[in-house]
Amino acid sequence: MYKKIWNKVIESDNIVLIAHVNPDGDALGSSLSMYNVLKNMGKNVTICNMTKPAKYLDFLPNYDKVKQTLPKKIDLMISFDCGSFDRLGIERRDYFLINLDHHISNTNYGDINLIEEAASTSQVVFNILEANNVKIDKDSATCIYTALVTDTGNFQYESVTAEVFRVASELVKCGASPEFISKMLYERDRLSRLRFLAKALDTLELYLEGKVGVVEVTKELMDKTGAIKDDTEGLVNMVRSLETVEVSLLLREEDEGIKISLRSKNYVDVSKIAVKYGGGGHIRASGATIKDKTFKEIKEMIINDVKEQLK
Length: 311
Ligand SMILES: [Mn+2]
Fold this sequence. Notes:
By secondary structure, the protein is of the alpha/beta class. It has 11 helices and 11 strands. The protein has helices at 2-11, 25-40, 121-131, 138-151, 162-173, 178-186, 191-201, 219-225, 235-240, 270-276, 295-310; strands at residues 14-19, 44-48, 76-80, 96-101, 112-115, 205-207, 212-217, 247-254, 257-264, 280-281, 285-290.
């Protein structure tokens, strides 16, 4: 499979790299790492994302090359970290599509699908490059490493295996700096974020004897604290960090509906819950956007879903 994918890349000239809308560190990092590699190979490559990537990732090499429109001529498209085609935010046209991901709920929408049980999509990218003896330069290593750090919560999740540390070690050898990346990711908070977190945590409610923790973020709260979407990053993990909490739920009001983010600690499969509402994700981290329901209704629905699994 690694060879087959790489041969397709080599024979294609006009290549587009794309990841899911509202890209996280993994979505952006894995697509940018491939961008660097293909640029070095002299390919006509375009990196797209239908939403402008968040500012906290602006240290990634070639961050400013990410476009919000697709080029006319596309021979090959590679999608990264995207569980279903509609989350790419584009129309399907006549091009060959390679789908690289690590979400178990991936719908296999590509012409080639490589869905591995890896800690990050960037680890899948690493596997492809390594298997084909492609040199990973410092810029690409920085992107792959950043994606690995963000998708494993700093090497803390169940997905972290000896293999993950081997990959991380290889990336450091290729020039990725753990200290630099850590500082860029975690030591550049905005004041609005702390102000926002204080208010958001104030909405915390506990259910099922403290096993479920819920926080609600309204547009009003966002406006009042001057917070932007990026500022909500990490909030749902903070709620999970409570000793009694098995599942944390963040509800955020958006134009399209209410976005839910779910995290679990030990035994609840939150990807099952997200899939039920048209979303997706992993066993311990997932999300969905729900339309035409109130905060209260959604809360009740999810608490019931958790209850079912706790039986
Ligand atoms: Mn990912």
